[in-house]
Amino acid sequence: ILRRAGKSVQALKPCFMMGPMAVAQYLEPGAMQFDMVVIDEASQLTPEEAIGAFGRAKQVIVVGDPKQLPPTNFFNRMSTTDDGDMDEDSAISTIAGQESILDVCRGLMPERMLQLHYRSRHESLIAFSNVNFYDGKLVIFPSPFPRSKRLGLQYHHIKNGVYQNKQNQPEAMRVVDAIINHMRCYPDDSLGVCTLNMFQRDLIEELLEKRIKAFPECDTYRAKWEEEGWPFFIKNLENVQGDERDVIFISTTFGKAPGTNVVRQNFGPISRPTGWRRLNVLFTRARKSVHLYTSMEAEDIPVDQTTPEGTKALRGYLEYARSGVIANVTETDREPDSDFEVAVANVLRGKGFSVRPQLGVAGYFIDLAVKHPVRPGEYIAAIECDGASYHSGAAVRDRDRIRGP
Prior knowledge:
Layout: H1 2-12, H2 20-26, E1 34-39, H3 47-54, E2 57-62, H4 88-91, H5 101-106, H6 127-132, E3 152-157, H7 169-185, E4 191-195, H8 198-212, H9 216-228, E5 233-236, E6 245-251, H10 275-283, E7 286-294, H11 309-323, E8 329-331, H12 339-350, E9 355-361, E10 364-371, E11 379-383, H13 388-391, H14 396-402
Parallel strand pairs: 1-2, 3-7, 4-5, 4-6, 6-7
Antiparallel strand pairs: 8-9, 9-10, 10-11
Helix pairs in contact: 2-3, 7-8, 10-11
C-alpha cells in the first residue's frame, strides 16, 4: 500500500510513528519524503539503525538522555553458563564501545538540555539523580506536601533476605505482599515493579500469580489500569526505560549468600562501566512514590578508588533512601597533612585496624578514618588532627592557651 499509494496515505496521515526496522521495511527509499523526523530514546539507537530514517527527511531532531541506557544487545546475544542457566550478564551486556546516534549527533548538531523536570511530584524522587548524574542542573519544583507513605522515597529493609541462585525469595515475598496491599488499598494509583535481574522478576511473577487468585479486587485493579493505558508491570532493569507509573516498587535483589555475613560485590551489569546509567533510569520512573525493598544496607557495599561508578551509585542510593541525606563519601589519593597524622595511623595499624587518610565528603576531608574490622564498608571512628591550615595560623598559640585547663 505504501509503495503504490504512499502519497495518498501521507496526505491522510501526515505523521507516521515507526521503529527503525519498520522504516526500512515499509518506506521504500525515494518513494516518500518527510519534512521532519524525530528520533526518540536516541541513547538506545545505534547509528546504523537510525541512518535509514535520516535519509527520508529534510530535517532531524534527535531526543535522548546521555545519562540513560546506551545501546544493548539484549535480543541478539543469549549465552548459557556451564550448568545450562542463562547468563544474564552476557545476555544484557552493553555493546562494547558502541556509540549511539545521540552520541554522534551531540558532536555535530546544536544541543539543548531540557532542564525542567516534570515527572516527580516529590523532590525526593529525583534529588539523588539530580545531584549524582545531572550535576544539579535540573529545575525541580518542591512538593507542597511532606514525604509520606504515599509520596516520596520510602525505605524497607528485609533483614532475613538471602541471595541464592540469583534470586532473593524473602525479598520477593515481601514485594508480593506489598503489591497485593497496594492493589486492594490504593486502586487510584498505577503501579510498576522493577528488579535488578530477570530471575528475581520471574520469581515475583510466579509468587504473585499464586497469591493473587485469592483477591478478586486485584483483577479489577489490573483490568482498570490496562484499560486506562498504564498497565501493571513487573520488569527487570534493562526493560524499564521509557516507563512511568504513579508508584514504583524496586527489589534490589542482591544480598548475603546463605551462611555468610557479607554481600558478594558483583552486581551484574550495574558493576560495568555504564551501570550507573541503568540505575539512573531505575530511580526516575515514579510520579508519586518509590518503595525500595532491599536486603542490603549501604555498609554492605564497601567503596574505594577502584569501585565502579554503578556500584558507588547503588550504595549511595541505599544510604539516601535510609537517611534522606545525599552523602558523597569517597576515599581519596590525598596524603596525610602532617607527620603527626602518619604516626597516629601507624599506631592504629599496629593494633590491627585499617586506616584511610583524608576521607572526603563534599570537599571536606576527615584526617583519619578507621574502618570496621568486620564490615569493610563501615567506619567506626573519625580522627581529626590539627592540620596545616590550623597550626600555620597567626593566633594558634592564643587559641590553644584559652581552651586549655
